[in-house]
Amino acid sequence: MKKYIAKRVIYMLITMLIITAATFFLMHSIPGDPLSYMARNLPEQTRENYYATYGLDKPVYEQFAIFMKNLVTEGSFGESLRYPGRSITDTILQNSQVSVVPGGLALVFGLIIGVILGIIAALKKNKWPDYIVMFIAIVGITVPVFILASLFQYVFAVKLQVLPTQGWGQPSNIIMPAVVMSFGTIATYARYVKSNMLDVMGQDYILTAEAKGVSRFNVIRKHVLRNAFLPCITLLGGQISGIFTGSFVVEKIFGIPGLGFYYISSINDRDYTMIIGTTIFAAGLFILAQLIIDIAYSLLDPRIRVQ
User: Fold this and answer.
1) Could you say which DSSP state residue 158 is in?
2) Which of 25, 197, 219, 266 could, after both became Cys, cross-link 122 (CB 3.0–4.6 A)?
3) Where does the ABC transmembrane type-1 domain start and stop, copy by copy (predicted)?
């Protein structure tokens, strides 16, 4: 197990290096930069000083070497080009803490409700509970999140006036964004759990257990649920990293100053350092989550650990 984890950590570091280099060089291959627009009306000498301050007057490979040195030795992504003096690392840490609140609640709520609905749909296949669950799943997948967000705002903020339309800082500001973001998670897990449960319930060892007189409740509790839920753990990797990076659409609609909102803003501003830092942060979270999921797999299923 230790050898397996060490190997995965090495692969993770190599992957992160490739992602960092690809992101850095791709961003610098795009014509223009934020300073060319911001300093267009300044004297030539002042513009040169700006470029020298941020190291943009050096060759790209030298800029990359400096960036990697600062990242490895100081854990720093540098400063924002669009907002001088603002640390990229501090911005990511502060805004990801905002994104994780509604995102984390949405994931927990969606996971619990989705698994319960998936179990109900599998046990009541081709009956009215199954049809209701699948209808909810279709709605959660097909209806765009901005439509759900607007609908919730109209009903609960405009008509009922029980929740604020936008804002941040109060517990009431979290409810609608979390519920809206949970719809996709509910739909995904309801479908996956139902499909996996039906597949497991048709296996020979399940039929053998039932033939031996084991009650249906114990068969489902001891055998079906554990094996059916195992493939669903794979989905958690991307979703766990997603709660830190936030949802731009939801954060924009509800006025949440999360990382997703600032990420899109940095793209519009062509803020190289912010884009690169946020991309590396998101990629690192995703890869780390995948490592944790793989370890969880081996702990939940001894057959995987043996292989």
Assistant:
1) I
2) 197
3) 96-297
Helix (H) or strand (E) holding 216: helix 216-219
Inside any domain, residue 11: no
Q: Return the CATH number at 125.
A: 1.10.3720.10
Looking at the structure of the chain, the number of domains it has is 1
Residue 196 included in any domain: yes
Q: What is the pTM of this model?
A: 0.80
- pLDDT tens track for 160-181: 888 888 888 888 889 999 999 8
CB-based contacts of 244: which residues, under 8 Å, 6+ apart?
A: 96, 99, 100, 103, 259, 281, 282, 285
DSSP, residue by residue, 25-68: HHHHHSS--HHHHHTTTS-HHHHHHHHHHTTTTS-HHHHHHHHH
Within 10 angstroms of residue 61's Cβ, the number of other Cβ atoms is: 11
CA torsion 257→107→234→259, rounded to 10°?
0
Q: Residues near 199 by Cβ (< 8 Å), separated by ≥ 6?
A: 228
pLDDT tens profile 108-146 = 998 899 888 988 898 888 889 889 988 888 888 888 888
Question: What amino acid occupies position 89?
Answer: T
Q: Is residue 164 one of the residues assigned to a domain?
A: yes
CB contact at 8 A, 248 and 181: no
In a domain, 180, yes or no: yes
Residue pair 96/259 in contact by the 8 Å Cβ criterion: yes
- pLDDT above 80 (res 257): yes
Q: Mapping DSSP to helix (H, G, I), strand (E, B) and coil, where does residue 284 land?
A: helix
Q: Looking up tokens 């319930």, which residue turns up?
A: 201
User: Which structural domain, as residue segments, surrounds residue 111?
Assistant: 97-255
- How far CA 253 is from CA of 11, 69, 150, 165, 256, in Å, comes to 38, 38, 8, 9, 8
